[in-house]
Amino acid sequence: MSQDTSRRAPRLITAREAARCIGITKSTFYDWLARGYLPCHRFGRTIRVNTSDLEAYLVRTRMNELATPSILEAQRASGLSLPEPSKYSTEQPVQ
To answer: H or E element: which one contains 41?
Structure first.
């Protein structure tokens, strides 16, 4: 059996890191996990979230340009790379 070495290993972060990245409390983030908004991995008592799942959730729930500079900076510092709004916006350009 050969292994596909072209695949990236998932980047897992703690619930605290994920909550900080999106500007919510850790308890709110745990509530989201309990409600099934995001998938997570449990290793004993430790919970980790895949950054690609977090990015997909942020894109899925995006409403407008209300993100504060501190939230955007936390996302950049954590390594989350969100696509530019124009790449997934459903709005048509005004002509």
So the answer is: strand 41-43
pTM score, whole prediction? 0.58
Domain ranges of the chain: 12-79
Maximum separation of any 2 CA atoms in the chain, in Å: 56
Look up residue 19 and give its two tokens: 């909550």
* CATH code at 12-79: 1.10.10
Cα 69 from chain centroid?
17
Q: In a structure prediction context, what are the per-residue pLDDT tens digits for the chain, which is 95 residues long?
A: 455 555 677 799 999 999 998 899 999 999 999 999 999 999 999 999 999 999 988 888 776 555 666 766 777 777 766 555 544 444 444 44
Q: Give the end-to-end CA distance of the chain in Å, rounded to a whole number.
A: 55
Residues in the chain: 95
